[in-house]
């Protein structure tokens, strides 16, 4: 689990990122979860955009993605979800204690 301090740090890092995934009408599927897990291994911190035509509630989408990809949910703001997962191979972010 992330502390409040770590979440604030990650939010500041995520601020400049562009969303690299979009959740649309189909909602969350296994393929998307797999791709997000792979992207997290490379980048550690990503943004996911929820499109207007998505049938699911944004909090449900955020929970499904974080659980499916084994990631920490940093933030849900508007229609954007920020996810973090520490990379085994490409560690880039050093979290504050």
Give an overview of the whole structure.
This protein has helices spanning 4-14, 30-43, 58-69, and strands at 21-23, 45-50, 72-77, 80-84. It is an alpha+beta fold and 97 residues long. The chain has a single domain, classed as Translation Initiation Factor IF3 (2-Layer Sandwich). The two termini are 12 Å apart.
What's the layout of helices and strands?
Layout: H1 4-14, E1 21-23, H2 30-43, E2 45-50, H3 58-69, E3 72-77, E4 80-84
Parallel strand pairs: 1-2
Antiparallel strand pairs: 2-4, 3-4
Q: Main attributes?
A:
4 strands; single chain; 97 residues; 38% helix; four-stranded mixed β-sheet
Give me a quick take on this structure.
The protein is of the alpha+beta class. It is 38% helix and 21% strand.
Indicate the structural class. alpha+beta
Using only CA atoms, what is the Rg? Answer: 13 Å
Number of helices: 3
Catalogue the unreliable spans: none
Number of domains: 1
The appropriate CATH architecture is 2-Layer Sandwich
CATH H-tier superfamily: YhbY-like
> What letter string, H or E per element, gives the SSE order?
HEHEHEE
CATH fold description:
Translation Initiation Factor IF3
How far from one another are the termini? Answer: 12 Å
